[in-house]
Amino acid sequence: MGSEARAVVIQKRRGLSLDGWAVLVAFLLALLVRVGIFKHVPW
Amino acid sequence: MADAIAVPQVRSAHSGFQFLRLIPGVLLLAAVGYAGKLLEQNVGTYAKAHHWTFPNIEYVLWAILLGLVISNTIGVPEIFRAGVATYEFWLKAGIVLLGSRFLLGDVLKLGGVSLGLVAIELVVAITFMTFLGRAFGLRPKLTSLLAVGSAVCGVSAIIATQGAIEADDEDSSFAIAAILALGALSLFTFPLIGHALHLSDHAYGLWAGLAVDNTAEATAAGALYSDAAGKLAVLAKTTRNAMIGFVVLGYAIYWASQGQAKGVGNKAAFLWQKFPKFVLGFLLISVLATYAFFNKEQITALANLSRWAFLLTFAGVGLRTNFREMRKQGLRPFAVGAIGEVVIAIVTLGLVAGAGKLFGF
């Protein structure tokens, strides 16, 4: 099974869509930055 | 990568074990992406120290090229594949975080311009791809999948449409292979054309977001030009992605009227189900940034997190692209896609040039 397909499979298994997980993780990271746990992210 | 274009199947699995299965591939994405970053920093310095003439190659291109070399030579071993497939997750998380770099006013202004251009692009792309598919004698549902893939957002749109119009797995595989191959080509051609035409970052970013099909490739094609062009490409592409539900709904209703697919019951629920939720996340982060929920340092931190997420995405774009397997899918769908893409690229370039004169960018 392919990578595109796997992404879909992953989202179905978790109950939340791939988009949903991506939004959740992004907001969690934003919250960690906001409360100061991640003060500096190097690039 | 025949198996990179297989059609989704849902299997039951233990979620803890499945999570562990992702780790090797995610580490590979990180290693390839970081190697691309190191190459960007060191190759130019080394060439300069040795008085060599060497073009400045950005980490985006290094990461994609490294991925392509691995995928097309030794291949991606099975243990890494599940994790490599998470590149789309990193892409969407990166887009949401990128929302912090847009003020809501900019999103509404640029998004409004993009929306107008996207509407025209959708009509042109669907009409022309449908005409081409018929002219080349492709199966009607394969033509529909290619039209959706090139008009809206590549692979995600094809997968969403396949279920809605009950297309064959084989048609879906053909359409995905064609869109992925053309997306890979656009990574190398779009920046060259943009530089040759001396397009501004703004014009190029809009053009890449409107004309490149897959979100990952559109993001990469924009970032290959400049950071500012990358931002604009993501915004234009996100606007295009927001249209996915309407286009898939239109096709579902059409094929149901032909008696070749199930009817759509609750249209609002259908639209919500197909709507890409990361677009809402992007907008919400933009609203928070606009109303000073984050200070300047925090916005820089969020922007850098977004860059790291995109780094994994670009590595994944290279690692999941295998030209040998794509070639096996046949020439006709690729030819239809290629001709269609060239026409769409020319039309959208004209649209962007016209909008540039109108709105002064």
Number of domains of chain A: 1
Number of helices of chain B: 17
- Number of structurally distinct domains of chain B: 1
Q: Encode the helix/strand succession of chain A as letters.
A: HH
User: How helical, in percent, are the residues of chain B?
Assistant: over 70%
CA(first)-CA(last) distance of chain A: 34 Å
What structural category do the secondary elements of chain A indicate? mainly alpha
Strand-residue proportion of chain B: under 5%
Number of helices of chain A: 2
CA-based shape of chain A: elongated
The backbone outline of chain B, from C-alpha atoms, is globular
Largest sheet of chain B: none
For the largest interface, the chains and their residue counts are: A-B, 33 and 56 residues
**Class based on secondary structure composition and strand pairing of chain B:** mainly alpha
Order of helices and strands of chain B: HHHHHHHHHHHHHHHHH
Report the sheet-strand fraction of chain A. under 5%
Low-confidence stretches of chain B: 1-12
Radius of gyration of chain B: 20 Å
